[in-house]
Amino acid sequence: MRSIIPVLLCGGSGTRLWPLSRQSYPKQFSKLVGEESLFQASAHRLSGDGLAAPVVVTSNDFRFIVTEQLAAIEQAASGILIEPEARNTAPAVLAAALWAEIEDPDALLLVAPSDHVIKDTADFRATVQAAIPAAEAGKLVTFGITPSRPETGYGYLELKDSAASDATSPQPLTRFVEKPDAERAAEMLSAGNFLWNAGIFLFSAKTIIAAYETHAPDILTQTRAAVDNAEKDLGFTRLAPEPWAQIEDISIDYAIMEKAENLSVMPYKGAWSDLGGWDAVWLESGPDDLGNVTSDHATAIDCKDTLLRSETPGQELVGIGLDDIIAVSMNDAVLVAHKSEAQRVKEAVSALKARNAPQATAFPIDHRPWGWFESLVIGDRFQVKRIHVHPGAALSLQSHHHRSEHWIVVQGTAKVTVDEDVQLVTENQSVYIPLGAVHRMENPGKVPMVLIEVQTGSYLGEDDIIRYEDVYSRGQGAKG
Asked: Is residue 90 classed exposed, middle or buried when 0-12, 13-18 and 19+ CB atoms within 10 A define those classes?
């Protein structure tokens, strides 16, 4: 039997789970529910018998996060496609289909967002198996979730009759329904023939490409050009930026699914959530008998139906006498909201952007292919960072125009290059990097290396960097 190719979409930058989800490190890479990130849980769910290694569609800034998180669960992608810029799901899905078509036009693709929660993996896989005959017969299969409440945050799929929602095979679709108001959502729940639109699809590469040829030929032309002119970069495939920039920013629902006549709906009765807000995280986290959910370093006293999360070790969050409250604490930002107002968190992000607050988009920990760093103290002409370098990893050979640096190793051993001098710096030793010096740090050991960096100078931005050599081929710019 032909293996299904999972296609994981993870280029989004959701704001409804701020401050934990931010543009530089969105929710799919965070551990919101359980011990794995949502991306890792999705990769696990879409692996196993009958499922090939996934194709991942992501952005340039997330490419090394993808490979690192897959490696942590002992997986690897068959392809990682880098979008030059975000253009929504229609071109992202098509790019994956065109990539798969090169090897096998009949390949079946299981397309899924990488930030959803489906706890019963076996049940979901069985549902996918039941949809395979329809996909092999040329249907575009979309998965619909049996609703458990009158939800206003999801789009819906209307089936021809209420009995179809309990079917164990794909069913005809009457129409797509936009996100309803509360009254209409209650009516649809009572009707019994409406399913939540999960944004999960199963089809062959040739079937979905043919659908674009019929309903979105301009998107097909430009996306094919972006794939045909893609460049290999280490283990990544960079889609060509010029044709990609000409593609309409549109979802696959609007571009294809709402127009296609060969669409079928596969009902899924199991639990599902897109974690579209902190209220959903509270629900999926399993509230206790009083309705409270608390993380490590969080304490609820005389509280009810409350979510308390401290995301910073050593920072204790305590709630007293709270009812229906969400409180999420990080070392650079705190969110406090009534649970009923959870969908308004994106308004806070907009307000912070208007004030040019870095917390609106920048995660306090900056992930890089060699490890990560975080700023501990920022002053007028100085900054103190903690830098974590993975075993065997190396930063680029670089220099700075506006700052000097002082490195103090606090864990492991660093191999340090400063101009022509190369030395090993061990724990509790330090080295000075003069302004303009060409330098690099490496971790030659088998354990993480951690150092404290003190920067001084007239400008301390991450874009003050010139790269001369880089094992990750990042080029110039703050992240390359």
From this structure: buried
